[in-house]
UniProtKB/TrEMBL annotation:
<feature type="domain" description="Archease">
    <location>
        <begin position="3"/>
        <end position="153"/>
    </location>
</feature>
<dbReference type="InterPro" id="IPR036820">
    <property type="entry name" value="Archease_dom_sf"/>
</dbReference>
<dbReference type="GO" id="GO:0008033">
    <property type="term" value="P:tRNA processing"/>
</dbReference>
<keyword id="KW-0819">tRNA processing</keyword>
<keyword id="KW-0106">Calcium</keyword>
<dbReference type="Pfam" id="PF01951">
    <property type="entry name" value="Archease"/>
</dbReference>
<dbReference type="InterPro" id="IPR023572">
    <property type="entry name" value="Archease_dom"/>
</dbReference>
<feature type="compositionally biased region" description="Low complexity">
    <location>
        <begin position="86"/>
        <end position="99"/>
    </location>
</feature>
<keyword id="KW-0479">Metal-binding</keyword>
<dbReference type="GO" id="GO:0046872">
    <property type="term" value="F:metal ion binding"/>
</dbReference>
<feature type="region of interest" description="Disordered">
    <location>
        <begin position="82"/>
        <end position="105"/>
    </location>
</feature>
<dbReference type="InterPro" id="IPR002804">
    <property type="entry name" value="Archease"/>
</dbReference>
<comment type="similarity">
    <text>Belongs to the archease family.</text>
</comment>
<protein>
    <submittedName>
        <fullName>Archease</fullName>
    </submittedName>
</protein>
């Protein structure tokens, strides 16, 4: 379980696996940090928390990664060592609540903010929906998850 950086035409992609939805989200975020610099100092930076809400599971992954890029730019810190504590989605199978309106997906996570001055960072401009894939794989319960995300560099 983890991530692998993949070359992509003019961009970079992260392929990740995890034994849970939380672990595959964290693995993709760790891939984003690895795509941003070659070495991340282990002893630098403080942890911070973040919450993200979106209308679909794939949109939650997109919005989570977009928020990490936004926080990198506004805090001047590279988010690293990602932990996704929980992901909650719609309770019903069709994704709607008792009133017929769709429930949202919600994520609680944390990361260590490494000052950009402490790393030789490359700019990852944005996350894209291009070729994005997030799916459960394997048979049996609970199964594992795979994700593929392309970043604009």
């Amino acid at each position: 379980m983890g991530f692998e950086l993949r070359d992509h035409t003019a961009d970079i992609a992260v392929s990740a696996t995890g034994d849970s939805l939380e672990s595959v989200f964290a693995a993709v975020a760790d891939g984003l940090a690895a795509a941003s610099c070659d070495e991340i100092p282990a002893e630098t930076g403080d942890r911070f928390s973040l919450s993200v809400t979106a209308e679909r599971r794939e949109a939650l992954l997109f919005d989570y990664l977009d928020e990490l890029i936004y926080l990198r730019d506004t805090r001047a810190e590279l988010p690293a060592d990602h932990r996704v504590d929980s992901i909650a989605g719609p309770a019903s199978a069709d994704g709607s609540s008792a009133d017929g309106k769709p429930d949202d997906w919600h994520l609680e996570a944390s990361a260590r903010g490494v000052p950009l001055a402490a790393v030789d960072a490359r700019e990852v401009k944005a996350v894209t929906y291009s070729e994005m894939r997030l799916e459960r794989v394997g048979k049996g319960e609970p199964g594992s998850w795979e994700a593929y995300v392309v970043f604009d560099v």
